[in-house]
Amino acid sequence: MEPEAKVALAQPETAENSAAPKTKSEDYFAGFDFPSLAVDMGVMLKNGVHFGHQKSHKNPKMNEYIFGTRNGINIIDLEKTVEKLEEAKKFIEKTVAEGHEILFVGTKKQAKNIVESAAKISGEPYVVDRWLGGTFTNFKNISGRTKYLREGEEKMKRGEYAKYTKFEQMKFAEELERLESRMGGIKNMMKLPGAIFATGVQEDMLAIQEARKRNIPIIALVDTNVDPSIIDYPIPANEDAVSSLRLMVAYVTKAVMDGKEKAVVLRNAALAEKAAAEKVQK
Fold first, then answer.
1. Antiparallel, parallel or unpaired: β 73-76 and 66-70
2. What residues contact residue 255 under an 8 Å CB cut-off, 6+ apart?
3. Do 131 and 141 lie in a common domain?
4. Of 102, 116, 111, whose CA–CA distance to 26 is shortest?
5. Residue 87 and residue 198 in one domain
6. Which end of the chain is more exposed for a tag (fewer CB within 10 A), N or C?
7. What's the pLDDT tens digit per position in 217-264?
8. Can you list the alpha helix ranges (DSSP code H) found in the chain?
9. β-strands 73-76, 51-54 pairing
10. How far is CA 21 from CA 31, 43, 207, 216, in A?
11. pTM (2 decimals)?
């Protein structure tokens, strides 16, 4: 799948996004013009979203999303991609507007930095390293560990470990660093998310399986070699090329941002209605 990996992300040119590409994960979407980002098949085409896997690796359940083949490669029907993406976006916006979080999951190598950057810029929890078994199915214990991590970091900031020996302080620091690397992306996730967004069905299968057990809706990019029937909101797309991943993750991120804007509008409307009702009662 070399050809599509060379395609650069196309989006409206602005002073911010015309700068040189960033390499650090936290800067992956720095300067990205989310307000101007619109679902566009032309942009998808330029970013290789339509490239699937080899015909011999096709999952029959993806037939409805495949336009045809070219040089032995399955070509994804971008009209179907747009259709399913719009469905997913509406669901994401509604879920976030209602006060729920979307857990971003991207454990495959080329998706990690993209997913982490998108989650941070949208203020959502994320998992980009090994999925911790029981994150959903044993959420009580996971919550206990994340609480310990949050409290430990606060104690470290306040200097409460200064009363211990240097060796003990080092051990505390090492333990917190280990916990941060394993669950730093979910340490502020106080309840089960309203949905998860996975960038790789095969690589993120453990997360998908746990979500299904807890009836958590699943949004995911589905390439031509996976089973889309296990996903509630499948989005047919090339999930291997960085350019495709970045574009599709950007669409999802914008949906989260739009949902948060709606949440603010709804909250302000509710407060105004409450204030008006109290005024009438007086």
1. antiparallel
2. 88, 89, 92, 93, 96
3. no
4. 116
5. yes
6. C
7. 999 999 999 999 999 999 999 999 999 999 999 999 999 999 999 999
8. 2-5, 41-46, 78-97, 112-122, 139-158, 166-183, 205-213, 242-281
9. antiparallel
10. 10, 18, 30, 35
11. 0.86
The H-assigned helical ranges of 204-241 are 205-213
The continuous run of DSSP H or E covering 222 comes out as strand 218-222
| pLDDT score at 269 | 77
Question: And the tokens for 72?
Answer: 């032995």
Q: Mapping DSSP to helix (H, G, I), strand (E, B) and coil, where does residue 40 land? A: coil
Q: Please, how many CA atoms are within 13 Å of residue 59, restricted to the half-sphere of its CB?
A: 16
Task: Name the region of 111 (left: φ>0; alpha: ψ -120 to 50; beta: rest).
Answer: alpha
How many residues are present in the chain?
A: 282
| Token digits of residue 100 | 């729920």
Phi, psi of 128 (to 5 degrees): -125, -5
Q: Give the separation between CA 262 and CA 60, rounded to whole angstroms.
A: 39
Q: Give CA torsion, residues 214, 217, 220, 226, to 10 deg.
A: 60
Is 2 a member of any domain?
A: no
222: phi then psi, degrees, rounded to nearest 5: -120, 120
